[in-house]
Amino acid sequence: MPYIVTIQFSKAGKMYNFNAGSLELVAGDRVIVETERGTGVGQVVRPPAEKDAEAVVALTPVLRKATAEDLATVGRITLKEQEAYRFCVNRIIERNMPMKLVQVEYQFDSSKAVFFFTADGRVDFRDLVKDLAHSFHTRIEMRQIGVRDEAKMTGGIGICGRELCCSSFLREFQPVSVKMAKEQNLALNPNKISGQCGRLLCCLDYEYETYCCLRKNFPKAGKRVRTVNAVGLVDKVNILTGNISLKLDDNKIIVIKREEIIGEGAPAATPTGPAPQTPPQSVQRTRERRPELRRKQEKTSLESYTQAEHGKMTSPSPAPKEITAAEPAVTEPSKSGPQRKKHRSRKHGHRKPSETTPNSTAPKPSSGA
Fold this sequence. Notes:
By secondary structure, this protein is an alpha+beta fold. Among the domains are: 64 residues, no CATH class; 74 residues, GMP Synthetase, Chain A, domain 3; 42 residues, no CATH class; 48 residues, SH3 type barrels, CATH 2.30.30.140. The chain is 29% helix and 20% strand. The chain is built from 9 helices and 13 strands. α2 crosses α3. It starts with a strand and ends in a 55-residue tail after the last helix.
């Protein structure tokens, strides 16, 4: 069965799997391996373990264990890295470039040197690369990194008094938000919840899930609860001690335990006093409806007038009598008052018969005569 070994190239760095082959390795051994960047020296984190043959096909085999000569070469490379670091810093200062050099890393075979730096934006370092290549006669690679990676490479002591998590054991960065600090009742002071890198502390993520689980058993702030002796609003909650600050109706604050809560409290009594005088609704409704009544009355009178006029137009007119020579035609006496004008809505086909004829000389007797 093939064996797989886990190796890291820097402290608290990413771990990679290699094919151990027939080498007998233990945790802490230094080995020589071939990587994408070139030949490198790594440290065994986990001893070889048996795996399936399919999982080992794509893995790179370990070349050999590091010898005393290899370790001496690593020491010489470390001195070259320090020299390259000082030279590059001086060139950056001379050229007044907006960048900060963090670390220089040489490959084991000195075929390439990688310069890690931080900057706010893009930097034109073409002239700097020419100076470095002319001085060290090797391939130069400039790589820009973030502030968290800078703290990981540099190391230091955190506000807790211990070594930084990222440079001691934290291999990958997890997203951290202000919500985690609020859930743990921490002061939202940037100086207290920020690390050396200027970002939020990575340790805010360690106990976030625990606080979320414990908070489910406590009432939320602002909720009204009831105990045996008092009723009030929840002001503060201390999850670690289990104490709850309760604000009573008289603004007095008491501290109780979670077990003392027996249920939700009744809503606070509203202050009693003379109700503000409001105008009666009946008067207001009458005032609002007056215009509507007037419009309805006007509309009704107009409709009745229109219907009356329409009835007059559509009513059948009496047939005119035949006029003979012996009986002269008479005209119908006019009604009292001036004659009313025709309505505009009257159609052209409905016209009253003529009241007089050209041959009439006497008035026509009415139908009731």
